[in-house]
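Can't paste images in this forum, so I'm doing it all in text. The chain is below; anyone willing to post the predicted structure tokens underneath?
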Amino acid sequence: MSTDKGHKGVEVDHPFLVEYGVGIRLLIFDLDGTLIDSSVDISHALNHTIRPYGLADVTVEETISLIGEGVARLIGKLIEQRAPGLDLPTLIERFTAYYSAHLTDHTTAYPGTEKVLQALEGRRKAVITNKHESLSRQILEALDLLKYFDYLAGGDTNPERKPSPLPVLNVLARFDTLPGEALLVGDSIYDIEAGRAAGVRTVAALYGYGAAGFAQGADYSIERIEGLLEIVRLLDHGFRP
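Text version of the structure:
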């Protein structure tokens, strides 16, 4: 039995597995591109935001390339590419108003997500995202996923956002958990950098929005979220590749 193949895929009987120590007490998840696919709703909100200015619509693929650093950077990067002279605060306000009313028109959990969260029952679970906390909470509640998490931190919860390790360190302290007892799952370089800087092992979600090569610094990678269960099982038995 093995994880899905990818960067540093894990196999149970791999000859280079060595003793590592304690198992996993805390799992930390990114949101967009890791637990949920929100790309269509975000794309629609972006297009609503820029349409009065005569700009061409943004495709879902373009939207995916912009996601990961929160709303301000999402729109800021788009404007830098399309129309640098537009007023960013006005666009952020317009985007937020529309998106808040259409959070889950098309947004869904990735296949297998709820099954994996159920299988991890009994372990602490947290979400750390650069999306606003209130919007993240509404989405998870609407998708009936919020009940699986002990804590949620948005981009406005802490003084710093990913790739800063601060949100991860705060969650570790909150649950009195050592870095070696935690695992962070995310689909972007911001997740991997935040986890590594906090001393936490990282899992790259290759099925998400990450740019090419983002997983190079991760400890493990998975092609589907179900692959996480095998990694947790291995680490519970005190092994790492």
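The mean pLDDT is 90. DSSP finds nine helices and ten strands in the chain.
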